[in-house]
Write a structure and sequence with these properties.
This protein is α/β, with parallel strands linked by helices and about 550 residues long. The chain has 22 helices and 18 strands. The strands form three sheets. The chain has a six-stranded parallel beta sheet with strand order 2-1-3-4-6-5, with helices on both faces. Helix 21 links the parallel strand 17 and strand 18. Helix 3 packs parallel to helix 5 and helix 9 crosses helix 12. The chain is globular and about 75 Å long. The model has no long low-confidence stretch (mean pLDDT about 95). Bound molecules: thiamine diphosphate and magnesium ion.
């Protein structure tokens, strides 16, 4: 058994079903071992997309996704995906090749110190030096990637170690892990804080969206009846039909949801990760924050909790609810603000203007997506609108990256979601800038045969930056570009393309595409004048009205 075969059986031992990537000649032993295994090799058209797909696998299942690349250039193409998984806490294992380490027959050709490159982008980066260590290193890689706080791990397998024959080394069986639950003294203290609060408010952050947490979290909110809001990456963690949803903090301040935040005297911050763009700015006179997390909070200028409840979040919250359920007469103190906040957010969502307003686009997408449908966003201006306006009912049904916030991840993550959930509707929403960063993956989507609709928002610009330019008083300069004919582009991949040509045509186009199955690309022109009208002028007037 050679090193590559041992590596692939160690991957099988971890339950890996697919490996995404682009091999190079240094990976050929691994490719050969994959050919004889149960694991599918899914080629992508850029390594970055393979990493985004593997990261999304980890995010949606809690089990690390695996991607593969060659040495040097291929490995370097994984780095943005590594950072996306690292900041976004998505379990992923990256495997890259390397020239032989026992001799240097090609001298320095294509050799880059990838392990050092990957170190700051991962939880662990290792070069494998002998086949004998493979079973334990692979087990350790998956353990590290999947345990809290999850993230990426990098393993480099040099080609001579991959080819080296040796005895069959026993694999290390994975075992289920039970995390420690918060200490009873911390639970008592947290219970006391909540009991004493006049106007408590729950915030659901990125870690609240861990797949295994959904049920316990919804149960906690239902039992304590305290209203909640979420960060962008905490969206969907508790169904907003609970009657307790107060909004999403897509901006850091001055949005309508901040009315509730500003009035709260205690924020129970569940799973907040400070990699996210701040959902609110803590200051000395604001509400107290109780941090509930798998791990202690990292203290920042704008986040410094008053108290912490650390441990496995689900069971800890169950114990907390046992202490306070039914004993909180002021639990709903902030609820009277709810209706007004949500009504303001919903304004103008049904206007027939053409090009379409972002509010209308979000509204129409919501109409067509079933409760469990998954919307995967790329990065652009529309992300703020979706985060703010899209109402989620099921955990992990609005996938967005508010951590690295990289462009180019929308399409690959949607392909992964569609592969994992073939019977659910999956929609990728991309700007015309971000879509073109990984649009070549349409071919991957065609080849793997997913049902997927890709919605491209056309403004012929890097709209988000153009808006920031405008908001910052800069001249409109350097942000516009031309686009290919997206319908012809779709046709070139053998998929159906269509263009929304009036203000009421988006929902029917989406419905038709989903109903007919397969892969579709729809383009819709977007009117971004709403960015300034709502997100600057209207919110500014609102802040002035409050006397700020
Ligand atoms: C890889 C990468 N490059 C640059 C940026 C900075 N950036 C954020 S949004 C944005 C514009 C996105 O344009 P587009 O995809 O067309 O979406 P729009 O805002 O126009 O809707 C840019 C350049 C980024 N986040 N990621
Ligand atoms: Mg654009």
């Amino acid at each position: 058994m050679n090193g590559a075969e041992l590596l692939v059986s160690a991957l099988e031992n971890e339950g890996v079903e697919q490996v995404f990537g682009i091999p190079g000649e240094e990976n050929l032993d691994i490719v050969e071992a994959l050919r004889h295994s149960r694991i599918k090799l899914i080629l992508t058209r850029h390594e970055q997309a393979a990493a985004f797909m593997a990261a999304t696998h980890g995010r949606l299942t809690g089990r690390a996704g695996v991607c593969l690349a060659t040495l040097g250039p291929g490995a370097l193409n994984l780095t943005t995906g590594a950072a996306h998984a690292h900041l976004g806490a998505m379990p992923m294992v990256m495997i890259t090749g390397q020239k032989g380490i026992l001799s240097r027959k090609q001298a320095g050709f294509q050799v880059v110190d990838i392990v050092s490159t990957m170190k700051p982008l991962t939880k662990m980066a290792h070069q494998i030096l002998s086949p004998a260590t493979i079973p334990s290193i692979v087990r350790e890689a998956f353990r590290v990637a999947q345990q809290e706080r999850p993230g990426p791990v990098h393993l480099e397998l040099p080609e001579d170690i991959a080819a080296e024959e040796g005895p069959r080394i026993p694999l290390v069986p994975p075992h289920p892990m039970t995390l420690p639950v918060a200490h009873h003294a911390a639970l008592d203290h947290a219970g006391k804080l909540i009991f004493e609060a006049e106007r408590p408010l729950i915030m659901l952050g990125a870690a609240a969206s861990r797949p295994r947490l959904a049920e316990a979290l919804s149960e906690f909110v239902k039992r304590v009846q305290i209203p909640f809001f979420n960060t962008q990456m905490g969206k969907g963690a508790v169904a907003d039909e609970s009657g307790l949803y107060m909004g999403t903090a897509a901006l850091s301040d001055h949005d309508y949801v901040h009315q509730a935040i500003d009035h709260a005297d205690l924020i129970i911050s569940i799973g907040h990760d400070t990699v996210e763009k701040p959902p609110f700015i803590m200051g000395p006179h604001g509400p107290k924050v109780l941090h509930v997390g798998y791990l202690p909070a990292s203290v920042e200028e704008i986040y410094f909790p008053y108290s912490e409840l650390i441990g496995d979040i689900g069971p800890s919250l169950t114990l907390l609810a046992d202490r306070i359920e039914g004993k909180l007469p002021r639990a709903g103190a902030l609820l009277p603000l709810r209706q007004q906040i949500l009504a303001r957010i919903a304004e103008r969502a049904e206007e027939s203007r053409y090009p379409l307003t972002p509010q209308r686009i979000v509204h129409d997408v919501r109409q067509i997506m079933p409760e469990d449908g998954i919307v995967c966003l790329d990065n652009g201006m529309y992300k703020i609108w979706f985060a703010r306006n899209y109402r989620t009912r099921v955990a992990n049904t609005l996938l967005l990256d508010n951590a690295l916030a990289t462009m180019g991840a929308g399409l690959p993550s949607a392909i992964m979601a569609a592969m994992l959930y073939p019977t659910r509707r999956v929609l990728a929403v991309c700007g015309d800038g971000g879509f073109m960063m990984n649009s070549q993956e349409l071919e991957t989507a065609v080849r793997v045969g997913v049902n997927l609709v890709v919605l491209v928002l056309e403004d012929n610009a890097y709209g988000m930056i153009r808006w920031k330019q405008d908001a910052g008083g800069f001249a409109d300069f350097g942000m516009s570009f031309g686009n290919p004919d997206f319908i012809a582009y779709a046709m070139a991949y053998g998929i159906k393309g269509s263009r929304v040509d009036n203000g009421d045509a988006l929902a029917p186009a989406l419905e038709k595409a989903f109903a007919s199955g397969g892969l579709h690309l729809i383009t819709v022109p977007v009117d971004y004048s709403e960015n300034t009208r709502v997100l600057i002028d209207e919110l500014c007037d609102y802040a002035i009205g409050k006397g700020e």
